[in-house]
Amino acid sequence: THEEDYLAGKCNFQSDKMRQFLPYMEAYENAGIEVELNFGWKASTEIYEWFSIPSTGAHKMGGQGKSASAPKNFEGFAKCCAETVKYLAEEKGFTCLKHLTFYNESNGGATPGGWDFVVPDDMEVKAYWLEMLKKCDAQLKKDGLRDLVKIWATEVSGSYEAPKTYEDWLPYFNENAPDLFEYASLHLYRTSYEESVSMAKKCRKLAGLQHPLCITEYGTYNYGKFEGIDFDFERSNVSATLGFINGGCAAMLYWILSGVY
């Protein structure tokens, strides 16, 4: 998509990348697996000169921040989001498309080492994510598509050792946009059984109990991979899974990352 098409909400669904993507949707459709579409993540080199915010990237991500920048223009972003949902759900007939979210661990965009949804230092990343949510929600409603998907917010990352990484995000969206998303989503790593239970209960309250909490990334260390780290069942993936279930989580995705977790 070129910038003028992007701003008008015109998407090229016949591109090579889209043709490579569709077989996955077909496989999920045939298997009866519900899909959560993450709209936005990294900007490719083909578009980031006009898609990304110009003042990001110079001092973040080793100068690669442009590819991890938040969108510069939400009008075009929201229009393209709605067009993509329309294409997949209505034109292609994928009934498996049930959920929608945006970007990955966007709270990292507020730090010097931010890896996604990077914004300039003088911007508040939570407020910018909220603006994106409002624009996309409004466009989907305008186009009569909002009922096709349930929005998950905000794929924020956190840990038991550093609660500030999520304690300000979950209540912020529950207070400022409680009706614009259906599910709360969060990434949590390296938790024991008891920590998983307590964090799940705590985060459900922070996100608003009307929003089912989904742990969309979690895992504990692969103990056999690291010298000096002994296996501990209490801090294993089995224990973490049971802890999140007993803590009342609605969904969980175990993240396998290069054998680390």
Q: What would your notes on this structure say?
A:
With 261 residues, the protein is α/β, with parallel strands linked by helices. 38% of the residues lie in helices and 14% in strands. It is built from 9 helices and 6 strands. Strands 1-2-3-4-5-6 form a 6-stranded parallel beta sheet. Strand 4, helix 8 and strand 5 (213-219) form a beta-alpha-beta unit. The relative contact order is 0.10.
User: What share of residues are in beta strands?
Assistant: 5-15%
The strand count comes to 6
Low-pLDDT stretches: none
Secondary-structure element string: HHEHHEHEHHEHEHE
Count of discrete alpha- or pi-helical segments spanning 4 or more residues: 9
Distance between the termini: 36 Å
- Please describe the biggest sheet, giving its number of strands, its sense, and whether it closes into a barrel: 6 strands, parallel
Radius of gyration in whole Å, from Cα?
19 Å
Biggest sheet strand line-up: 1-2-3-4-5-6
Class based on secondary structure composition and strand pairing: alpha/beta
Helix coverage percent? 25-40%
Averaged pLDDT: 87
**What sort of overall outline do the alpha carbons produce when their principal axes are compared?**
globular
